[in-house]
Amino acid sequence: MSYILKLIFLTFLIVSSSFASLKELPKTEILKLEKLELLKKNNIKINKAFDIGSLYMLNINVKGNNDEVFLTKDKNYLISGVVVDVKTGSQISAPVDLSNLKNKEALIYGNGKDEYVLFTDPECSYCKKFESYFPLLKDKVKIKIFFFPLDFHENAKDLSFYIMGQKTNNQKIDAMFEFNIGDDLSKIKNLKYSKNELNKLEKKLNEHIELGIGLDIQSTPTLFDKDGNSIVWIDMLQKYGIEFKE
Q1: pTM of the model as a whole
Q2: What angle separates helix 169-176 from helix 156-164, to the nearest 10 degrees?
Q3: pLDDT digit string (tens) for 132-180?
Q4: CB 121: neighbour CB atoms within 10 A?
Q5: In this predicted model, what pLDDT tens digit does every residue of 201-228 receive, in sequence order?
Q6: DSSP state letter for 106
Q7: Is 160 helix (H, G, I), strand (E, B) or coil?
Q8: How far apart are CA 132 and CA 91, in angstroms?
C-alpha cells in the first residue's frame, strides 16, 4: 500500500527524549528509510540516522546541501525545525564527524581526561569570555583548539597567525592569552614573516577554516565533545562545577 509522506515545517518542537539515548541506525535501516516516497522522489540521501526515542533524526543531503530533519516513528511525517529535549532544555542535533580533524589542531589546552574540540576566533569577545575560564578547567579537560577567524574581525587573521606561529604548545597558549579585546595590536600588525613562514601559516589557517566550514560552523566559539556532540560552553562550565559570571 502506497502513502504520501507528509512534510511538516516547524519552528519549534519539544520532545521528551534523552539525548544520551541517541543511537545510530545501521546502514541497512538507512537504506530502508531512503525508499520512503518523499525521499526517493526528491533524490534525498541520508548520511546518518539516529533513533532518539520518539523520533528518528536524519542527517540528509539534498542536491549537495546537508540538512537535519526528524522523522516520526510511524514514518508518515518528516519534520524540519528545532527539536528540544524537555529534560535538558538543549536542542537536539546529530553529532558531527570529527575524524578529519585528527592531529590538525593548532594547540592543546589542559591535561584533563575529558576531550573537547574548540573552534575559536582570537578577536571574538564571546571566545575570550569562555577562554577566561580555561585556568579553572585545566586539570579537568583537554581542549584541541582550531582557529576560525570571522570576516568582520579585521585583526583575527593576524592574531591567529601570531598564535600559530609560536614554536611550542606552551608558547602558543601564552600567545593566546597575551591580548584582550581592545588592546594595542601594533606588535601583531608590525610582525614580518618570511615568504615560507607566511605560506605555512596561511595553509594551516585555511585548513582550519575549511574544516570548520565542513562542520557547518557559522559562529564562534563552537565547542564539541570527543563524540562530535555540540556543547554549549556555559553548560560545560556547569558540568565541572564552575559558576558562570555575567
Answers
A1: 0.73
A2: 150
A3: 999 999 999 999 999 999 999 999 999 999 999 999 999 999 999 999 9
A4: 23
A5: 999 999 999 999 999 898 999 999 999 9
A6: S
A7: helix
A8: 25
